[in-house]
Amino acid sequence: MPKKLTEAEMSAADYAFYGLVWAGTTMTERVDKALVKAHDLPVSWFEVMLWLASSPEPVPASVLGNSTLLSRSQVSRVVDALQSRGLVERTPSARDARSVEVALTPAGRTVFAAADATRREALAPVFTELLDAQDLEALGAVWRKLKAAKGEQGR
To answer: What average pLDDT does range 101-113 have in this prediction?
Structure first.
């Protein structure tokens, strides 16, 4: 079996990249496990609910497809599942007759609030309690740079 590369054997860029991948995967798995156990709510469902909870108005389904880390077809399946549980509702768009908007129901807001508390609790020992304000600001700065570069490449 091949041995794992150590930090000293990798370039700084490779080490940073694999660190980001590892951290994202590890935290997502941790949150997913906690959400499924406590709320029967996969992390992909939580992500859609997070976008909806953050918006004061219903969100066009196309915006959800462009905003989340999910594909448009995944978003559609997630919204179907959430709707079947009474957590979201779809309504025809008042602005575009061809579009549908999605919003959390009151039950969806209640489930989201509980799930968000579970997410924060699951992440605390490996993220917010471990990192100080300076660490979190540095991560935010990295994220903003990477996101800005993605936006420029899409032009």
So the answer is: 96
